[in-house]
Amino acid sequence: MRVLAMATAVLVAVSTTLVASLPAQAAPSVSRAELISRARVWQTANNGGPVPYSQNHYWTDGYRQDCSGYVSMAAKLPAPGAITIDLNDRLHSSGIDMVDLRQGDIVVNPVGDSANGRHVVIFDRWVSQYKTSYYAYEQRSGAGTSYRVLRYGLVAGDNYRARRLLNVTG
């Protein structure tokens, strides 16, 4: 009986892990243009203003109002959204070089804790042909949903890396 109980516990733990990983790989595909269109929605979703930032609250669409919840919403990942470190794993994305970023790719810093360091943004386009800064959509503390010029990943030692979400097409 004890062996059966232990085997059952192991199966439950393994199946829970597999089910938690499955939605990211099984998420509906989303084109780059649709991902950007979805990202734009939160810029004016709060009575014409940006969705406010919060790690503890959910927007009306069921997604967390933090950076990874925002990226998850735009990428059609299951609500309430993957966390930043999950967006950086091989079940959600693959690593690419910064110079190879395309609209709808993400730039992520998985280092640190969620309140200090971890962050993810959605790449839109390069500011110039020199690729020294880019326009990105982000959900950030104190501002909510933003569209601005960034240099994350282009500054030595900042821990930001370019990633391509696995369900993004085109």
Set out the fold topology:
Elements: H1 2-26, E1 30-31, H2 32-44, E2 54-58, E3 64-65, H3 67-74, H4 84-87, E4 93-95, E5 106-109, E6 119-126, E7 134-140, E8 144-150, E9 161-165, E10 168-169
Parallel strand pairs: 1-10
Antiparallel strand pairs: 2-3, 4-9, 5-6, 5-9, 6-7, 7-8
Helix pairs in contact: 2-3
Radius of gyration: 17 Å
Helical content stands at 25-40%
Assess the beta-strand content as a share of residues.
25-35%
The helix count comes to 4
- How are the strands of the largest sheet arranged? 4-9-5-6-7-8
Distance between the termini: 53 Å
Instruction: Report the structural category.
Output: alpha+beta
| Major sheet characteristics | 6 strands, antiparallel
Contiguous low-pLDDT stretches (5 residues minimum) are 1-23
What is the mean pLDDT? 88
Task: Walk me through what this model shows.
By secondary structure, the chain is an alpha+beta fold. Helix content is 29%, strand content 26%. The chain has helices at residues 2-26, 32-44, 67-74, 84-87, and strands at 30-31, 54-58, 64-65, 93-95, 106-109, 119-126, 134-140, 144-150, 161-165, 168-169. The strands form three sheets. The protein has a six-stranded antiparallel sheet. Strand 7 and strand 8 (144-150) form a beta hairpin. Helix 2 (32-44) packs across helix 3 (67-74). It is globular and about 40 Å long. It starts with a helix and ends with a strand.
